Amino acid sequence: QVQLVESGGGLVQTGGSLRLSCAASGRTFSSYAMGWFRQAPGKERRFVTSISWNGGNTYYADSVKGRFTISRDNAKNTVYLQMDSLKPEDTAVYYCAATVARSSSTLPASYAYWGQGTQVTVSS
C-alpha cells in the first residue's frame, strides 16, 4: 500500500511559478513510476507528466512541455512538479499517482495509487 500526499498548490498570476510536492509512504517508493495528472472543473482527468522509477525517463503532455519539470528524490520518497510560465488554462486540481510498473504511463488506469489532489489556480 502506498499513500500519497500532495502539497504546494495555490493561487498564482499568469507567468508565475509553483512547485508541487508529492510525499509517499512505504519502503518501495523507489520502485514505482510516478505521474502527475490534472482535472479542471467539468473535464476528465488528464495526463500532465510522468517519471520512471529511477528518474531516467520523463514524459510530458504537449501542453506543458518546456514549462513544467518533473523530478524525484527517492531518498526522500518525494516527487516534484516545477511549474513555470503558468497560464490560466493550467488551472485545475493536480493529482500525483504511483504505478507498480517501473515504466511510466500516460493512462490514469495504469496507476494504482492516487493522492487527494491540490488546487492550482492561475489568474489572468
Total DSSP E strands: 11
Strand content: over 45%
Element-by-element helix/strand order: EEEEEEEEEEE
- Major sheet size, sense and barrel closure: 7 strands, mixed
The unreliable regions are none
**Alpha carbon gap, first and last residue:** 40 Å
Percent of residues in helical segments? under 10%
- Outline: globular
Structural class, please? mainly beta
Q: Could you characterize what this model shows?
A:
The chain is mainly beta and 124 residues long. It is built from no helices and eleven strands. The chain has strands at residues 4-7, 10-13, 18-24, 33-39, 46-51, 58-60, 68-73, 78-83, 92-99, 113-114, 118-123. Strands 2, 4, 5, 6, 9, 10 and 11 form a seven-stranded mixed sheet that branches. A four-stranded antiparallel sheet has the order 1-3-8-7, with no helix packed on it.
Topology of this protein?
Blueprint: E1 4-7, E2 10-13, E3 18-24, E4 33-39, E5 46-51, E6 58-60, E7 68-73, E8 78-83, E9 92-99, E10 113-114, E11 118-123
Parallel strand pairs: 2-11
Antiparallel strand pairs: 1-3, 3-8, 4-5, 4-9, 5-6, 7-8, 9-10, 9-11
